[in-house]
Structures are given as C-alpha cells and as structure tokens.
Amino acid sequence: MSLRVAILISGGGSNMVTLVDSMTGDHPARPCLVLSNRPDAGGLDKARARGIEVAVVDHRPFGKDRAGFETELQAALEAARPDILCLAGFMRVLTAEFVTRWQGRMLNIHPSLLPKYKGLDTHARALAAGDAEAGCSVHLVTPELDDGPVLGQTEVSIAPDDTPESLAARVLVEEHRLYPAVLRQFCTQFRRV
C-alpha cells in the first residue's frame, strides 16, 4: 500500500507539480491532497488538472488567530489522511504545536544551503555576502524555522553578474530535481519504520 502525501502550497505550485509527477510507477507514495492557504494559488488548478483532490484554508479571515487557522488546516489534513506532509512554497510559519503533531513526517524545500539564510530573501542575502555558491535544501520541519535535519542539498555556483532573480531561477531548476529525489528516499525509509 502506498504512503499518502499531502502537499501544501501558497502559489504557482512548481515544486508541487514536480513532486506529483514523480509519484508514479514504483514510487512508494501517491499524492492525496494539495492544500493552499490562498484561494487564488495557481497550483490548485495544476493539481485539479492532475486529478488530485484540493482544499483551501484561507489564512486571511483568521487575522492573528494562528491557532484557529491551524485547527482548520489540521481538519482538512485529517480528512485526507496523509502519512507525510510536503511543504512546497507554503508561505505560512507554522506553530510549534502544529509542527510537533507532524514531527518526523513533514518535509520542506528551502532555497538556500541551510543552515545559511533561513527565512526570506535568501538569494539577495547570498549575493550580498559575496558567496561563491547558493543552492537549496530539503529538511525535516521542526518548530524552529528552517532548522530541521537536512535530508538533501544541491549547490549552484553564483555568477559575477547574478541578480536575485537570475540566481533564483537556477536554484529553482535544482529544487525541481532535489525535492522528488529526497521524497522518494524518505518514503522508502519511512516504510521501514
């Protein structure tokens, strides 16, 4: 029996698409839900086009009530019964209580070579620091932002004329390679537990 994977998005869903498209054939998992905190997220239509169930829990009506938002988020997830959560451009910081509930079963892709540049504006920060390399990391999510154990990384050389946008575009290509590979390996190991 395949593991069930829910993918959380906030935008266009390019990483979600690469994950979904990789979960075919002998892959040990199948997508069971694509959930967004934004009703206008472009990734929702891409998921529907692939026959994947979608759900929306709009964070805006909750204002600063993160617990209320996460209660609705949890209810939507429980209805889909995932074994694993993949954050793929999900732009909400989750509380320690929510993360702990999914401890060891939630992955995230981050556009830096963690532990460098946690949070936002990673490409601009790498350029400002004069780094020779940037990249992306897939990590287990823990209550501390972008701080969980790294499961895989890919480096990208920084060119002298790079802008944050040009660097981001090259890193995104590597994200699309790295995340499906790490998810497959994680699912294979997860099944043995």
From TrEMBL:
Keywords attached to this Swiss-Prot or TrEMBL record, sorted alphabetically, are: Purine biosynthesis, Transferase
EC number, UniProt record: 2.1.2.2
Q: What class of enzyme is it?
A: transferase
Annotated active site residues, numbered on this chain, are H110
InterPro entries, per database record: Formyl_transf_N (IPR002376), Formyl_transf_N_sf (IPR036477), GART (IPR004607)
Enumerate the residues binding N(1)-(5-phospho-beta-D-ribosyl)glycinamide: G13, S14, N15
- Where is (6R)-10-formyltetrahydrofolate bound in this sequence? R66, N108
Site label Raises pKa of active site His, positions: D146
Query: What pathway is it annotated to?
Result: Purine metabolism; IMP biosynthesis via de novo pathway; N(2)-formyl-N(1)-(5-phospho-D-ribosyl)glycinamide from N(1)-(5-phospho-D-ribosyl)glycinamide (10-formyl THF route): step 1/1
The organism's superkingdom is given as Bacteria
Reactions accelerated catalytically:
N(1)-(5-phospho-beta-D-ribosyl)glycinamide + (6R)-10-formyltetrahydrofolate = N(2)-formyl-N(1)-(5-phospho-beta-D-ribosyl)glycinamide + (6S)-5,6,7,8-tetrahydrofolate + H(+)
| A family per Pfam | Formyl_trans_N
Domain (Formyl transferase N-terminal): residue spans on this chain: 4-183
Query: What NCBIfam families does UniProt report for this protein, alphabetically?
Result: PurN
Q: What does this protein do?
A: Catalyzes the transfer of a formyl group from 10-formyltetrahydrofolate to 5-phospho-ribosyl-glycinamide (GAR), producing 5-phospho-ribosyl-N-formylglycinamide (FGAR) and tetrahydrofolate.
Return the similarity comment: Belongs to the GART family.
Q: What is this protein called?
A: Phosphoribosylglycinamide formyltransferase
Taxonomic source organism: Marinovum algicola
This protein's encoding gene: purN
